[in-house]
Design goal:
Two copies of one chain form a homodimer. Chain A has 164 residues and is an alpha+beta fold. The radius of gyration of chain A is 19 Å and the shape is globular. The interface between A and B is large, with 100 and 95 residues.
DNA sequence: ACTGTAAGTCTTGAAATAAGACTAAGTCAA
DNA sequence: TTGACTTAGTCTTATTTCAAGACTTACAGT
C-alpha cells in the first residue's frame, strides 16, 4: 500500500494512520503534549534523526495537527504548537499510554502518573458512549454503513476543514 | 532508535508503540475487531503482503494481543483471536477512528457508524476521568513521576500537559 | 493423479530510516 | 572583524524494512 495516497482512502482509521501511523509521529506528539515546542528540544528528548524529525514536523503542520508560531524575529524562529486538531488526538494518546501502563509497566508501576486537575486525582482513562455515558466494551458495539459509505464517498473527498 | 529493543524502553507509550506502532498493525487489529480471524481473510480485506501479514500476526501472538486457536484438525488450521490484552486496545482504536471521522470524513459523513448495543444509539467515544467521570481535556491534565519513574530523567519534563 | 484450499515462506527491487557531517542566518564577545 | 555559538534545518551513506508475487507444505475431495 502506498501510504501517501491514504488521504483518499475510505476508512477513517486508514486516513488517520496516514497522518499519525508512523512510529515516530506519536512520540513527537507525546512530546508536544508534554510541552515541547522547539526543533532541538524534540531532537534531544527523542534522539530522533534530524532529517526524520524535520519531515514529521512538516507533515504534521501540513495536516494541521501542529502549527508554526514565530517566537522571535531576527533570526526568525518558529516553534511547533498543537492545534485543536492536534489536541483532539489526546484521547488516542492517553488510552494508548494507559494500555502500555497496564500491560508493560514493571513491578514498580507506571513511570508517569496523570492527574486530572479539576478533580485532583490520578486517573485512568475510561472511554464511554456519548449517548448513554456507559463505559464502552468492544463486544457491545455493532457496526453499520454510515452516510459516507462507499457510494457517496468519492464525491466528498476534497473537503479539508475540521468538522465536529 | 531500534524498535525491537523498546520493550526495555521506559515510556509506556514507546513500549506500546513497539507492539502496535507499525502502520499495518492497527489495520490488522481493526479487522480483528470487525470479526476477521483467518490469514487469507486478513490478506484479502487489507491487500497486505503475505510476508508482512505473517510477521505482524506472529508479533501480535508473541505479545499476547492475539492468540492462535485451532478451528480444524487434519490439516491443523489456526485462527487468530483477540485476547483480553487485545480487546483492551479498543479505546485506542475507536478514539482514532472517531478522530479520522471528525477531521477526514467527507461532507457525506463518516463511512461507518458505531452503535452501542446496550443503549441502541450511534455514538461518539468520550474519554473520561476514572475518578470524577468528567470528559478529559489535555489541558486539564498534569503529569508527575510515578512509582516506576527514573527520577532524574523525568524531572525536567514535569510540567502541565499541552499548554498552548 | 489432479485440482483445490489454507497458511504460510522466499526472492527481489524499491523505499524508509539512522547517524552524523554540513549549511544558513543570525547573535555575541574580544 | 574574527571567531565561537545558536537554532533549524538539509545532505550523504549504509542499513533496514517493505511490496509484490511466485513458490511450498500439507492435506482433502474426486
Amino acid at each position: 500500500m502506498r501510504w501517501e495516497s491514504l488521504d483518499r482512502e475510505h476508512c477513517s482509521l486508514a486516513r488517520a494512520l496516514a497522518v499519525i501511523g508512523d512510529r515516530w509521529t506519536l512520540l513527537v506528539l507525546r512530546e508536544a503534549f508534554m510541552g515541547v515546542r522547539r526543533f532541538d528540544d524534540f531532537e534531544k528528548s527523542l534522539k530522533i534523526a534530524r532529517r526524520v524529525l524535520s519531515e514529521r514536523l512538516s507533515l504534521l503542520v501540513e495536516e494541521g495537527v501542529l502549527r508554526k508560531i514565530p517566537y522571535q524575529e531576527r533570526p526568525i524562529r518558529y516553534e511547533y504548537r498543537l492545534t485543536e486538531k492536534g489536541l483532539a488526538l489526546y484521547p488516542t494518546i492517553i488510552t494508548l499510554v494507559h494500555w502500555g501502563d497496564r500491560f508493560y509497566a514493571g513491578d514498580a508501576g507506571p513511570p508517569i502518573l496523570h492527574t486530572h486537575t479539576p478533580c485532583g486525582h490520578d486517573f485512568r482513562s475510561v472511554v464511554t458512549c456519548s449517548e448513554c455515558g456507559e463505559a464502552l466494551d468492544a463486544r457491545a458495539v455493532t457496526l453499520r454503513p454510515g452516510p459516507g459509505s462507499l457510494k457517496t464517498a468519492n464525491r466528498s473527498r476534497l473537503r479539508t476543514a475540521a468538522r465536529r
